[in-house]
Structure formats: C-alpha cells, structure tokens
Amino acid sequence: MKITRLLFLLMLSAWPVFCQAQPLKHVSPEKVGMDSRRLLKADSIIEDAIRQGHIPGAVLAVVRHGKMAYLKAYGNRQVWPKVQPMTTNTIFDLASCSKAISTALSALILCEEGKFRMLDAVNRYIPGFEDWKDETDGLTTIRIHHLLTHTSGLPAYYSPPADAVPDPDAAIERIAHMKRAFKPGTGFRYSCLNFITLQRVIETTSGMSLRDFSRSRIFEPLGMNHTDYIPCAPDADGVWRNTDQPCWAPLMPEGQDWRSIVAPTTRQGADSVLCGMVHDPLARIMNGGISGNAGLFSSAEDIAILCAMLQAEGTWEGKCIMSRQAARLLRTVPRFAEPFGRTYGWDCYSDYASCRGDLFSPQTYCHTGFTGTGIVIDPELDCSVILLTNSVHPDEGGSTIRLRSLVSNAVAASIVQR
Hints:
There is one protein chain. The protein has helices at 2-19, 36-51, 97-112, 144-148, 168-176, 192-206, 210-219, 281-286, 300-311, 324-329, 401-413, and strands at 57-64, 67-78, 84-85, 91-93, 132-134, 138-140, 228-229, 232-234, 240-242, 296-299, 315-316, 319-320, 365-369, 373-378, 383-389. The protein contains eleven helices and 15 strands. The chain starts with a helix and ends in a 5-residue tail after the last helix. The strands form five sheets. The chain has a six-stranded antiparallel beta sheet with strand order 3-2-1-15-14-13, sandwiched between helices. A three-stranded antiparallel beta sheet has the order 4-10-7. A two-stranded antiparallel sheet has the order 5-6. Helix 2 packs antiparallel against helix 11 (401-413), helix 3 runs parallel beside helix 6 and helix 3 packs across helix 7 (210-219). A hairpin with a 2-residue loop joins strand 11 (315-316) and strand 12. Residues 1-19 have low confidence and may be disordered. With 418 residues, it is α+β, with helices and mostly antiparallel strands.
C-alpha cells in the first residue's frame, strides 16, 4: 500500500511535465508535401547573406501540417569579440516579434475571458490617458483595437535618457500625454508605444506582469521551455545586469551559463556585447526588460510549437491556449483597418509585410523584429516560416528585409502537395 501511494505521489509531482506539449516531430520535407531539393535554395540564399555581411548567421525552421519539416543553423551566432558557431537551439532576442507572440496573444486571451473589449477606451484602464482632440470634431476615443492595429495616432517611439533607470510608470505617464499624430482609426503608424500601452492594460486587467501572464498562459502550457523575458537593471555603479534568470537557466548543464546559448546583439564597449538583455532601449531602460513592444527571447523550435498551435486554431496536443475565434482574429484585418492591412497584433498586407514574400496565399500573416527575426504563417497552405538572425551583431547596419522575402519564396516554392 505504501509503495502504491509513493508511486502515486511521484506521478503527481511529474504531472506538470507530462502535461506540457512536446517539441514538434521532425520529418523529411517529402513527408509533408515539400521538395527537399527546392528547399536547398533557402540554404544558398541565407549563405549568400552571410558572405555579404548582412548577417553573422541564422536559424531557419519550416513547419507544415504540425510537423517540423526543416530546421537548420547557418554561420555563427557570435563573431566578436570571439567566434561562436550558430546552433539550432540558439536563443534570440525577438525584438518586435514579442508584440505578436506575447502581447497580442495575451490581449486576445483576456478579451475572450471578458476582461475587456476591443472597443473599450484605453483611459478606462489608464486614468488620464488622453484621447484625440480636434477643434472641429471634439474628442475621439482611442480604443484598445487602435493600439493592436497601430491606428491610435501615437508616435512611433521615444528615446529614453541614457542615464534613466527602469520606471514603467514614468513611461506610461509620458505616453499618456504625447501629441497624437492623427485621429484614431484614420491613419497607420507602426508604434512601439501602442504595445507598451497595451502591456499596461494587460497587467491592469490580469493582475499579473506581462512576463508572468504570457509564461503561465501561453509558453509553459505549450512546453516552450526556452521562451522568456529577462529582467535587468543598472547596479550601484551604473552597470546593467540581469536581475533574474530566464526559465531555461535551470535546464542548463551544470557549470554552463544560460547566456552561452543566447545570440548576442550589439557591442558594448571595448570587449563586450549585449547578450541576454533586450536590445531595444525603451524595453531595456524604461521597462527593465519586460515590455509590450520587445524583450522576449526564444528559439526556433519553441516558436515552431506556437506556430503549430496557431495553425490548429488555438489548441495543441490537448492544450487550449485560446479559442478558435480568437486565433482567427490574429489573421483577420478588422473592417476599420482594411486600408492599412493590420490585424490584432499581426500584419497581413501593410508595407511592413514584405517578409511574406510573393508566393504564399493572401491569407498569410506575419511579423518581424528589428534584430533580424521574422515569422510567416500561411493558414491556407498550412506552412510557417521562422527565420531568426541577429543582424545587429556586432553592430547595427545589417539588413534582413530582402533576405526574409527571398527565403519565404524559396519555402513556398518547395510546396508540391497540399
């Protein structure tokens, strides 16, 4: 009887691990209706970009029919001050892809749970947040759906002082009173400030930090064990340091630092690079690494699981992350935003959507990040392309805009069967 009880307790303690989704099954491209010889074109495109100095390296993942059809690493994840080869398990600073896979999904989960409506005024949750003022039309309310579609009229960005310390309240206070560029819903301006504002709405309505909410409701249930925000702050000497470890730190082999699998970004001084702290200044300086616009770190295999869940319309391996209706909103442009092509957190056909290439279906939605990351999802062909690079390493200036399109075309052209 005692042995039976002991076995039961051991199984109960392991239950959270068993409940997590597992990494996608790896199959040959042919198993999911793709031509592996055509996919080799993507290899040559990425290798050309490395030779030309646009990127130091990359990881490409292709998901089709819920399986990993292609996963490959190219070049190096670090070239200065020493060289380290790229590996398929490399973790990247996702930059603005954080908006799409963390902030937007969190917002839709809260929306479907009745915490807020897309039509709700932002100042319902952020007291003092100013609406649009017009001498002829009077006030026009800025609503949550304006934040998600970048149609609020907020400025694109603001640069924090170099000597500032993390102060999310100060950031929100400044955003709340900034001059709006246009009447909400009448124009489009891609803005990090929209998603920093949305973060505050998420945290106010959920009672949790964006990090804790997205981790507990999205990443942990899916088994995305290498996806997390990494808090940071300056110490007494003004040196920026991590104030907490990411979720994968306990998974590292004994004696191996969790930063050893993170792709660095820009150089910081004579002999160091930014590694394990978000590249985006607003996210790092004002929000301490946990920010609605940037700050998430992840790997290609983790993002592949999330893409498979979205292609399955919100559920993966028995885990319901969001309703089918909410998942479909991510790829649906609202009527008021049709001139601009933005969905609730993702992009269908704005000028920022070139990463989708020329050959995927009109239903394709996507998002990119300044550090060189990009995610493309085609629900009609049931195919996702995840291209992760650190093009800002060791210095900013590398471009992946054309590269993303070329890779998407190569992947789409390799699909030979539905």
